[in-house]
Amino acid sequence: MTVSDLAKQLAGAAGERTLVFGPGLTDWTEARHVPAIVAALRGASGPPAPPKSRRADEIDYEIFGEEMQYVEITLDPGEMVVAEAGNMMYMTSGIQMDTVFGDPSAQQSGLFGKLMSAGKRVLTGESMFMTTFMNGGGAREQVGFAAPYPGKMLPMRLDEMGGELICQKDSFICAARGVQVGIAFHKRLGAGLFGGEGFIMQRLTGDGIAMVHSGGTLMRRTLKPGETLRVDTGCLVALLPSVHYDIEFVGGIKNSIFGGEGMFFATLTGPGDIWLQSLPFSRLAGRIIAAAPSMGRGGKEEGSLLGGLGRMLDGDNG
Fold first, then answer.
1. 0.85 exceeded by the pTM?
2. How big is the CA angle at 282 (ends 281 and 288), to the nearest 5 degrees?
3. For a surface tag, which of 2, 91, 237, 258 has the fewest beta carbons within 10 Å of its beta carbon?
4. What residues are paired with 214 via a beta bridge?
5. CATH of region 60-219, choose from 3.30.1330.80, 3.60.160.10, 3.20.20.80, 3.90.1150.10
6. What is the DSSP letter of 80?
7. How far apart are CA 128 and CA 155, in angstroms?
């Protein structure tokens, strides 16, 4: 029997563990450890499947700063990055900037697809337009992005997260071309009516790198199956789709009015990773407005009852 004939009979995972003996072998050996048989098996089963093609551009990046970070994206010729309008900090001369209606990944789906993607963005409170930055030259070019408030830049590799990430609606900064930016609705009505910042979130899908911004200091935590964490809705930055998100009433009139945390918590139940921020923009803005005399609002010690009622409705301005 030839090696080729033997390989045909041994084709399959179980066959590779069959003990064989022949010329050049000193003892009975599993077929998978005999080079000639392994080579014949590969030939019998055909060439190996090519690696899965990558849809998103493979961009390079560097993050600068400590507490108020910005990110510099380096693009090879022909590569592109998409970003929320207004996040660009600078760009070199070879970068071509364009403004598109809706999600850039939906531009090939016709007018209806563009309208749908733009409508979804309006629901999240974002602009109907996004900006694209493409390297139209023959050398590597750079474009920088920054957030409108202090915090950290988080590089999210979607291909290492199962291809999907759900993030706060104002935390997305930019992503490689090929990453789709959509919306994530919550199924329960209670979360929709009272979830505050955490209700309508953005859904990032694809296999590229996306940049997400967090205010203040970042906390990443892995929830075990069944483990639940209650968080302020404004402090939630991102979560994996495997994490269950819901809304829970704070409980008690005093807690709701005077607790300064709003009427509802977000409850996150594992398994999966979550990212939290220590300084949501709404909290920072609320303090600035409260301290501004021209806005007609006093300090923290004034109007505590009315302020508590306002925070109860606003969710996270305390």
1. no
2. 90
3. 2
4. 152
5. 3.60.160.10
6. E
7. 24
Categorize the per-residue pLDDT at 316 as very low, low, confident or very high, splitting at 50, 70 and 90: low
For residue 59, name the pLDDT band (cuts at 50, 70, 90).
Answer: very high
User: What is the longest distance spanned by two Cα atoms in the chain?
Assistant: 95
pLDDT digit string, tens, across residues 94-133: 999 999 876 555 545 445 454 555 455 455 455 567 899 9
C-alpha span between 217 and 197 (Å, rounded): 18
C-alpha pair distances (Å), 280 with each of 51, 86, 133, 171: 41, 19, 28, 10
User: 66 φ, ψ to 5°?
Assistant: -115, -70
Question: How far apart are alpha carbons 154 and 172 in whole angstroms?
Answer: 10
Q: In this structure, what token pair is assigned to residue 14?
A: 């179980």
> Which DSSP helix (H) or strand (E) runs through 221?
strand 218-223
Domain ranges for the chain:
3-44, 60-219
C-alpha–C-alpha distance, residues 248 and 243, integer Å: 16
3-class DSSP state for residue 14? coil
Beta strands (DSSP E) in 16-128 are 19-20, 29-30, 60-64, 70-75, 80-84, 88-91, 95-101
